[in-house]
Amino acid sequence: MEEAHGADGNVEGTQVEIAVMEAMHKVVPPPPRSSLDKIKVRLKETFFPDDPFRRFKGQPPKKKWILGAQYLFPILGWVPTYSLSLFKSDLVSGLTITSLAIPQGISYAQLANLPPIIGLCLMADSSFVPPLVYSILGSSRDLAVGPVSIASLIMGSMLRQAANPRTDPYLFLQLAFTSTFFAGIVQASLGIFRLGFIIDFLSKATLTGFMAGAAIIVSLQQLKSMLGIVHFTKQMGLVPVMSSVFHKTDEWSWQTILMGICFLALLLLARHVSMRRPKLFWVSAGAPLTSVVLSTLLVFLFKAQNHGISIIGQLKSGLNRLSWDKLLFDSTYLGTIMKTGLVTGIISLTEGVAVGRTFASLKDYRVDGNKEMMAIGLMNIVGSCTSCYVTTGAFSRSAVNHQAGCKTALSNIVMSVTVMLTLLFLMPLFVYTPNVVLGAIIIAAVVGLIDVPAVYHLWKMDKIDFIVCLCAFLGVLFISVQDGLAIAVGISIFRILLQITRPNIVTLGNITGTDIYRNLHHYIDARRVPGFLILAVEAPINFTNTTYLNERITRCIEEEKAVDHHQAVLRFVILDLSAVPTIDTSGVSFLVDLKKSMEKHGFELVLVNPVGEVMEKLQRTNGVHNFFGVDSLYLTIGEAIISLSSLLKEST
Amino acid sequence: MEEAHGADGNVEGTQVEIAVMEAMHKVVPPPPRSSLDKIKVRLKETFFPDDPFRRFKGQPPKKKWILGAQYLFPILGWVPTYSLSLFKSDLVSGLTITSLAIPQGISYAQLANLPPIIGLCLMADSSFVPPLVYSILGSSRDLAVGPVSIASLIMGSMLRQAANPRTDPYLFLQLAFTSTFFAGIVQASLGIFRLGFIIDFLSKATLTGFMAGAAIIVSLQQLKSMLGIVHFTKQMGLVPVMSSVFHKTDEWSWQTILMGICFLALLLLARHVSMRRPKLFWVSAGAPLTSVVLSTLLVFLFKAQNHGISIIGQLKSGLNRLSWDKLLFDSTYLGTIMKTGLVTGIISLTEGVAVGRTFASLKDYRVDGNKEMMAIGLMNIVGSCTSCYVTTGAFSRSAVNHQAGCKTALSNIVMSVTVMLTLLFLMPLFVYTPNVVLGAIIIAAVVGLIDVPAVYHLWKMDKIDFIVCLCAFLGVLFISVQDGLAIAVGISIFRILLQITRPNIVTLGNITGTDIYRNLHHYIDARRVPGFLILAVEAPINFTNTTYLNERITRCIEEEKAVDHHQAVLRFVILDLSAVPTIDTSGVSFLVDLKKSMEKHGFELVLVNPVGEVMEKLQRTNGVHNFFGVDSLYLTIGEAIISLSSLLKEST
């Protein structure tokens, strides 16, 4: 802190100058490491950034076994210390989410185009096995597992391209199970191979737009049951659905519309109340089941099915049947199945992991992303063999679970058992449940996915994020669910590449009276140093941007020459590499060529503060050419300027 | 600058502290700019980094017209001042490259699978029109334009998938012209829409591997003529070619092999002499034509065609015919044509621009990349209508052109006219030219593309660049030319994304006795500051890395806590954002969440030196939450530590 750099101790004070020179700090290469070491570190950072084996270090072997078992089966972590008071909380929250799971599950099976008669059983199954599996393997305490709207929608819409659920329900069911199996495989392998970062490529902006678009698509599909239309389009897009709705005005049924509007209003009101007063969470949690019971009673009492209101109708009841014999690996459908599995797998994984992380950070515990992927993947693999379609952690139910005070994954087991018992014994009652109420429940559930404040926030913060969001939204609405997603991801990645291809180069100036150098265009009290042009590159230097950097730096020098007439003539170009984290061979050649070309034009290029990797590579070039020696490498801009100024004085 | 943040100066040394505080500098947001301004700047940097309109600024209208015309037609720049002495140089170099262009052109037409009888005419045409067009539009003075080996090879191998050049030569010719047309369209549009940076994605490493692989593929194809095999495989890969060679040992002709080896040795010797002594460039420049003349004479004198040596045979002679009526836009072939056009267009563009830039930097003039693309694109569009296939600036001939002392693009015109005259009047002489000599010429030409020292340099400098190079090489050899290229580009891009997804986070320490903070693992004299953890993030913070950063920073804190027992307890985490050029909405939320979660654990998060864009976005968050106020934003690490240390003292 007692450094006196920037003190230009000009004419006489040679003594001072020498002292300053001696205090100068050399740029040294980082301590040598073998290539193997470097590769090991890089691989570790890429695949094990959370260092999952840290806790095993220095433990006795027996403890290691216990820790290993607890890592694989998180249930072992909480079961030994489980208490009655914990069970009370879990029971309450388990029962609360059951009341939400039943109506939502029935509705979502419709979204996946599963005919209600199979759909309901399937939903019961999907709410039974997966939560059990998850409660053993999953590390989140709040996740409520089961079918979710978006994944159901995507699966339904993608499989419909290969099989017609109405004319060939058995084939459709086979495809659904097989896709679920593939989704599970994809999810588990992402976890096992520690490729969890792939879901990070779905940014918040992408998901916001995608969810909003999907919510609208889902809601539009409900117009069929909300309006009582019998012959509805099979397409999903905004345009065909709206045209179908307005071409079938003769099929609209006022009784259905009236009932739909009433129950939708009721559900939205309940939602509003719960959002205003989080303590009243049970209002919105209980509203769907209440609506189902109420509407079923109404239909039953008034025999409304004879007055244009369509009902679920006859149902088979029963427990989970093994379905691994229904998995279909026929080459005709394999393409569709794998594509569907991949898309639904990644989407449902994203939702599950995001929900798990959100509530983990609220309660301040950690969820291991890769571990979670393996749990969700295994859950779907097991699920596909026991008559379940794709399941994950649902946001709405997890929120209710959290608010109802769940403590461990046992609430999932409670839910699973309750759903099973309910459906086993009360199944016949659902015969009279009107489809219109299921539609209203879906709309009320997905409305929450349209997050207008988040979109506004994107607009305020970052225009490109907003564009990404908009593209995802419009793509889903007008092209297709999967293409909308692909376009948004493509734009997000292209944006990152563009930032690398066109990096920021800023001109730095000295903040008067200090040793601080900052962007001239940012800090108005920063001043140019006569005779010097100080540039900072703010990106890795690699093959994508060397051409640009060359052109840009040439332009900077020309502009500087044009401006700087009255001041000292430009002599040194200082390139601050502090913000250049990596460099590749093209980058190194670029620096070497730049230095040569500068020398040709009478300037000298000086580098400041190359970080570890960059310094290492420059040193390797030095071995060959000795281009960047002691007098063209400095640790700070201040030291470079002091040292070069004295050179300048000597030469004049 | 007189801001006194955090200064609650209560203890003894208040005077000193206040003095220090007064010297403290505030982080200010950059001067406000409208979104439109920012978008304008970004678009300019993306598409016009070289600022081509700069020279027009402040000029009178007439001058602007002249400059504009000179920009579009660089020929106008040098014709008015052209002199006899310049012409002398251009004539010599033009004649020198002619002697190289004729034998190479005949050979390359074979690579493109064009039967020699058409190929020779085509070659003559391709060496006539394109150089004329280029000399008008191109800005490089050294580029020698004509057919090149790699583009010929790719075109031949890709088109062969759609048409058989032996059974259906007319269709094949149509496809070749149409692909050339598409290649020209692609090239010109890249230039017009200023998307020239797309070719930057072909890194040096990719090209080194690709060129070496392609050179070997090309050489292998020459085994047909070198060994005199009649029934040769039509595939390109290493495996099928070698198996074909060793299954046809009965077709080997010793006369052909002997002749081939002799001439190949001659050519390689000439190449070696010229490389050793650059002044003797004419040795290797003249060797191919000498070989053709010599071998033709030998064949003619000894009637060698009757002794197992295959010759070119009967040729049509004639000038360029218009071929726009041969352009074929049939939907059956459109896919192949567009793919071929795209690949050959980009590859030949890369070669042309790279060669142009190399010689421009040697002679210290500028080549405008986008302008050059338009010139090469137009040259190919015109070429496709005048019986030419794809052409670009060839490295070998441009080097000879440069060494022979060319001054302007007139050497291209000289070459073009000479080639035409030669072929018009001397065509019948080529009837007796043996194919084996053409093979030897090709091998001698492409051997130079295998750049072993460059590969060794890649291995020394950067292991991943080496892997990229190796993948391109093996991909070309064992899969296919275009797939090898695609794989290498894919790996290069994936590597960049991975660097963003897994950015460097370094722990900084104070270099004793100074105000400098550097990486603890790099500078051994850097020391930890007790009570502080100073981290620097070296990448943009965005959706791809927030999860990782969160995990990594948590791990850093835990490691720090584990180490730091005897020292002061950890209280402040300083995040140096100097090397974070951009941030997106996910990044901002990450910082906000990180601050909250740190506070929960009893730490305080302090940010240092956010650059313009990052500061702007943090400020927008401040508008809502006031998260990053004056006491958690500092301009330098040193100032942050002084200010926070005093806080620490107060609290204890």
Would you mind describing this structure in some detail?
Two copies of one chain form a homodimer. Chain A has 26 helices and nine strands. The first copy, chain A, has 652 residues and is mainly alpha-helical. Chain A folds into three domains: 14-30 and 503-651, STAS domain (Transcription Regulator spoIIAA), CATH 3.30.750.24; 35-72, no CATH class; 77-496, no CATH class. In chain A, the strands form two sheets. In chain A, strands 3, 4, 5, 6, 7, 8 and 9 form a seven-stranded mixed sheet that branches. A two-stranded antiparallel sheet of chain A has the order 1-2. In chain A, helix 13 (254-276) runs antiparallel to helix 14 (281-302). The longest helix of chain A is centred in the middle third of the chain and has 33 residues, at 331-363. Chain A starts with 13 loop residues before the first helix and ends with a helix.
First-to-last CA distance of chain A = 32 Å
Instruction: Using the CA coordinates, give the radius of gyration of chain A.
Output: 32 Å
Oligomer: homodimer
Tell me the major beta sheet of chain A: 7 strands, mixed
The largest contact between protein chains, plus residue counts on each side, is: A-B, 94 and 94 residues
Strand content of chain A: 5-15%
Helix content of chain A: 55-70%
Supply the helix-strand structural class of chain A: mainly alpha
Number of domains of chain A: 3
How would you describe the shape of chain A?
elongated
Low-confidence stretches of chain A: 1-13
User: Number of DSSP strands of chain A?
Assistant: 9
Q: What's the number of helices of chain A?
A: 26
Mean pLDDT of chain A: 84
